From TrEMBL:
This is Endolytic murein transglycosylase. It is found in: Cell inner membrane. Residues 344-370 are annotated as: Disordered. The gene is mltG. The record marks E217 as: Important for catalytic activity.
Length: 370
């Protein structure tokens, strides 16, 4: 009997020992897990290794894992595994955006992942000013080193809508150009659809051509509808447009600037773009007009003006308008007087500057020029 009691006591104690052992292992396991979790969390939320602000690029199509590997390679984080696995479980959004992101010095993995998923990438854009030719636009696109590839085919004149077009570094030059052309296609269709009735224009292409002339004729935005109305009035009257920018485009083909006045021989030469010599519109646009110029042609002012000439020596001063040739001649004479005075003043300033440099070289005070 005594032996059986001893055996039962040992058996009972053994079960408790096993249970205690299991509990001990469980506690140790929990401590290890908690410690591991604390370590991973401290790595994820703690300060990162960078010592200065840096830019990180997420390539198009990068996953969280591939972005994490590149972050570790470039020294932004210490562990790609923690970034992708732990971050992928504790953050609501784990879809990284394509683009360049500014990562502050010491940014934690948590900060970086939130920036890549919810932040705003650095903006890169190609800007085409109103009135630029396709040659100028293509040159700017090709000069942007963040873009890749080549432009497959030279676009047609007037097919680009001026403006700023965002892109992600690594995008192709052709894709940016495609956006510009698509924007013009859509804008022109919308403007043509909403145009005034009775315009002497037979197609969207003709509206585009006239808008390009308006764009090149005035540097004052508020004048566009007024200038457009002059040309519309001339078309209705069967008068030639007589626009200097059309002659210039015929000479340069939009590939350069003329940087001089027109010669008499150029004004008298009968070319497809010389609207002093041809009836109606030239065969193509002479530039890429902006949306305001398109709208100005679609909705020109209502007036009887048939002529205009520059008001002053600089384009920002705008133009003066006339309904008849006699008044126009008076305006032209006044413009020539103002231009001559401006040229004389510029010449006097240049001469004064030249004399000042000469006197400086000679070590003397320059003579005053009045």
């Amino acid at each position: 009997m005594a032996d059986r009691r001893k055996r039962r006591r040992r058996s009972g104690n053994g079960f408790i020992d096993i249970l205690n052992g299991l509990l001990t292992l469980l506690v140790i396991g929990l401590v290890v897990v908690a410690g591991g979790f604390f370590y991973v969390a401290s790595q994820y939320y703690g300060d990162g290794p960078t010592t200065e602000d840096k830019v990180f690029r997420v390539e198009q199509g990068n996953s969280l894992r591939s972005a994490a590997e590149r972050l570790e390679e470039q020294g932004f984080i210490k562990s790609a595994l923690i970034f992708s696995q732990f971050g992928g479980r504790v953050e609501d959004n784990t879809v990284v955006k394509a683009g360049d992101f500014t990562i502050p010095a010491g940014a934690s993995m948590a900060d970086i992942l939130r920036e890549l998923t919810t932040g705003t990438p650095i903006r890169y854009a190609v800007t085409i000013p109103e009135g630029w030719t396709v040659a100028q636009a293509v040159q700017r696109i090709e000069a942007d080193e963040r873009l890749t590839g080549t432009i497959e085919e030279q676009p047609q004149e007037g097919s680009i809508l001026p403006g700023s077009y965002d892109y992600v570094p690594g995008d192709t030059r052709q894709s940016v150009l495609d956006k510009m052309q698509q924007a013009m296609t859509e804008a022109l269709a919308e403007v043509w659809e909403g145009r005034e009735e009775g315009l002497p224009l037979e197609s969207p292409a003709q509206l585009l051509i006239l808008a390009s002339i308006v764009e090149k004729e005035t540097g004052v935005p508020e004048e566009r509808p007024q200038v457009a109305a002059v040309f519309v009035n001339r078309l209705r009257e069967g008068m030639r447009l007589q626009s200097d920018p059309t002659i210039i485009y015929g000479i340069t083909e939009g590939k350069s600037t003329l940087d001089r006045g027109l010669r008499r021989s150029e004004i008298e030469a009968k070319t497809p773009y010389n609207t002093y010599q041809i009836d109606g519109l030239p065969p193509t646009p002479i530039a890429n007009p902006g949306i305001e110029a398109l709208q100005a042609v679609a909705h020109p002012d209502s007036h009887d003006y048939l002529y205009f000439v520059a008001k002053g020596a600089t384009p920002k001063e705008g133009h003066v308008f006339a309904t008849n040739y006699a008044d126009h001649q008076k305006n032209v004479a006044e413009y020539r007087r103002i231009a001559a005075e401006a040229a004389a003043e510029a010449g006097a300033e240049a001469e004064a500057a030249r004399q000042a440099l000469e006197a400086q070289e000679a070590g003397q005070e320059p003579a005053s020029v009045n």
